[in-house]
Amino acid sequence: MIEFRHVNKVYPNGVRGLDDVSLKIEQGEFVAIIGLSGAGKSTLIRSINRMHEISSGDLLVNGVEVKTLKGKSLRKFRRGIGMIFQSFNLVTRTTVIKNVLTANVPDMSFIRVLFGLFTKQQKVEALEALDKVGILGKAYNRVDQLSGGQQQRVALARTLAQNPEIILADEPVAALDPVTARQVMSDFKKINEDMNISVLINIHHVELALEYATRVIGIRSGKIVYDGPASLVNQEV
Length: 237
Ligand code: ADP
Ligand code: ADP
Hints:
binds adenosine-5'-diphosphate
C-alpha cells in the first residue's frame, strides 16, 4: 500500500508542487493521475520512489516511511518500483534483450553485456517479459529499429524484469499516436490484472484515463481535487 499523509512539496523557488496531499492506494490498483501541465502529477509520482524529496508530511510504502531509507535499503526499495517515462529511457543502439537484461544491474550493465555475464535463467526471464508485452519477436532487434509504441513496450518489459510491486509511469503515452497509446494502455492494464502490480499513470489525456484506469486522481495546483472511480469523473477536473 502507498499512503500519503498531509504531504507537501515546496520547490526551492517557492513553487508548491504538492499541497497537503493525503491518499491511500492499495496493492493492485490501477490509478490514473490527471491534471493540466504543471498541476503536480510528476511531483506526486516521483515522490513515491524519492526521485523528488517531499518537504513535509509522511509517505509510506508498505508501511515503510520512504524518507528514512538510505543507501542499500533505498536501492532495494527502488528496485521494487518500476519507473516508465514519456521518452522510454532505453539504450537505443543495442538490442531489445540487452536493454531488458540490464534492468537489474545498471552499474554493471556494460561489463556484463560485454562479457555475456547473464545466466540462462535471466535470459529466459527477459524473454518472458518481452512475451508478456507482445514483442518477443523483436528480442534481437536494435531498439532504434522499433516504433515508439514498441519501444515503450520494451521499457515495460525492462521494468517487469525487476519484478516490481508498483509501476510508476510518467506520461507514458504522451509521445505516441492515439492507436499506439491505446495498445500501450492495454498492456499496462493486462500487467495490472494478471500480476497484481499497482500501476500509477500520469496522463493528461482524460479519455484514456477513464477508459483504462479503475481509479482517477485529479490534481490541480498540487491539491487533490478528485479521487474516485473513473466512471464518476466530471468535467471539472
Ligand atoms: P505536472 O507533472 O502535472 O506537469 P509537475 O509536478 O512537473 O507538474 O510540476 C508541478 C509544479 O512544480 C509546476 O509549477 C512546476 O513548474 C513546478 N516544478 C516542478 N519541478 C520543479 C523544480 N525542480 N523546481 C521548481 N519548480 C518545479
Ligand atoms: P518531464 O516531462 O520528464 O517530467 P519536465 O519538463 O516536467 O520533464 O521537467 C524536467 C525537469 O525540470 C525536472 O527535473 C523538473 O523537476 C524540472 N522542472 C520542471 N519545472 C520546473 C520549474 N518551474 N523550475 C525549475 N525546474 C523545473
